[in-house]
């Protein structure tokens, strides 16, 4: 797995962000917004690998780690759910707001390992945010991967994130299948209804590399479903979230056993997780 | 080696203080700690200060950067690092080892913390070889050599000869500082060093990290469940505990981003924005602290993140004792 190199973040102080500017804000769902961020000179603040993280701050309020959902030539995107003090404040912002950014942090998805393989992406709710960077990558370098399958679920139609990708962009991609489900029936919803773990059982995908991310209950019930279908622990890849302050393995708080999620994660295989204490 | 009459210590320190600030162990408001040297100050030359020297390199509160948030605009400016050299005096070998532990964290190859690294760069460290051992000292069990300070952090070794001090420069930086007071020093070969007294507390630690890797769900942790108050004294006094929080100080639109000591013994330490708490109770927090010191850090760096200084066990209001814990774990092995 690749790591952020020293050059990527070499600054006078590894805890000091640079100033970026929010160039676009998109409403994804009732409580998720995507923020597009460039540097002050209109460039990409830093170049993350799929699955890597970035620190975003409103210095007077706080700073937190978010997954980078997408990147363009001159910007990075972060999809953020309003869950607390900082994220609520971020949701109040308008375009043109300047923010602090630093990164990229963490290991990212194992790109080399995934090369040439069939890929299954499973996500629930805001869990599609970290997974999306990898889907984007596979779509961009389509020839380097086998079939692409997405299984995505949310509580309701309103809670679905990245609708354009789900319903317009991805279904157009060659050999890519997108399955979307919501928890309960809704009047104008013609798609699948039910929980993600059940949908996995129903679709019964053949074993491949699975990248799975979502609420703990979804993960909890999806893992046995995947194992029953013959997915190996090495091929079940997930991302973890812990409280983070520094992002560089110093403040101490994101450890799980001898791993620091900010350095050695956030991406772990099921095989790796089984060796760590269940303290996350 | 270079010899200094003890009666000349004050002159010696004053002479050095002309060249750079000198930091010494002393009493401030009844609490022994490291503080800037002033003439005629009473120094603490027996034992070690209650407060470890880690704050010299990782201050309890330190500004990381300045910012100004004005409407949609944001300015961020680096703080200037202290550039002038300083000398840190009389650091016991356990605390020297503590600094080596902090180096592993703050000067790791992936990310060097420039503020920390700068302070290490400008500080010449005089170690002081042990001349006594307290009931609570178990440094030798944790890989500390009481005969020889870890040269990865110590620049000069100081030996207490009774009426004299003997100085031995361990590198060029140490030599340079000693040369500032050359006229007070006399060269002497074949100095006879007093023996270092045996540690009263000796623990078996061979194979401890491996042993601990199987204890995560063991009942031994239940002993701590109700006892700990979560006061954080242990982590504040510990020379190796390095966890920090990042806070703000605001005055209108101007702000300072501060790094402040934090403690893994506090509930909010790992509490997430959505309310999720991966380490739910005192048992889980003590377990993480002990395992971090005795297993996790060892797995990464092949050294313990505990130097056996005994501060935490003597100052814990609930007598939670990491040395007893080690003994208990190792005892269970032999059964
Ligand atoms: S000093 Fe003792 S009571 Fe206080 S947090 Fe540490 S272990 Fe708990
Ligand atoms: S854990 Fe306790 S004995 Fe060990 S270095 Fe820290 S304060 Fe000293
Ligand atoms: S966020 Fe500070 S150690 Fe990981």
Give the SSE layout.
The complex is a heterodimer of chains A (280) and B (335).
Chain A: H1 6-9, E1 18-29, E2 32-39, E3 53-58, E4 62-67, E5 70-72, E6 75-81, H2 85-91, E7 98-105, H3 111-114, E8 119-124, H4 128-140, E9 148-154, H5 163-172, E10 176-182, E11 192-193, H6 196-203, E12 209-213, H7 216-228, E13 236-239, E14 255-256, E15 259-260, H8 261-264, E16 267-269, H9 270-275
Chain B: E1 2-5, H1 9-17, E2 22-28, E3 31-36, H2 54-57, E4 61-70, E5 73-78, E6 86-92, H3 93-106, H4 114-122, E7 123-128, E8 156-160, E9 164-169, H5 172-179, E10 186-187, H6 208-212, H7 233-237, E11 244-251, E12 254-261, H8 282-301, H9 311-315, H10 322-334
Parallel strand pairs in B: 2-6, 6-7, 7-8
Antiparallel strand pairs in B: 1-9, 1-10, 2-3, 4-5, 4-12, 8-9, 11-12
One iron/sulfur cluster binds at residues 228-234, 265, 316-318, 320 of chain B.
Number of E-state strands of chain B:
12
* Alpha carbon gap, first and last residue of chain A: 21 Å
Count of the separate structural domains of chain A: 2
What is the count of DSSP helices of chain A, taking H or I runs of 4+ residues? 9
Cα shape of chain A: globular
- Beta-strand content of chain A: 25-35%
Q: What is the subunit organization of this protein?
A: heterodimer
CATH class of the largest domain in chain A: Alpha Beta
What is the count of β-strands of chain A?
16
Give Rg of chain B in angstroms: 22 Å
* Proportion of strand residues of chain B: 15-25%
CATH topology category name of the largest domain in chain A: Rossmann fold
Largest sheet of chain B: 8 strands, mixed
Order of strands side by side in the largest beta sheet of chain A?
4-3-7-1-2-6-5
* Form type of chain B: globular
Largest sheet of chain A: 7 strands, antiparallel
Bound molecules: iron/sulfur cluster, FE2/S2 (inorganic) cluster
By CATH, the superfamily of the largest domain in chain A comes out as Nucleotide-binding domain of ferredoxin-NADP reductase (FNR) module
The overall number of domains of chain B is 2
Averaged pLDDT of chain B, please? 90
CATH architecture grouping of the largest domain in chain A: 3-Layer(aba) Sandwich
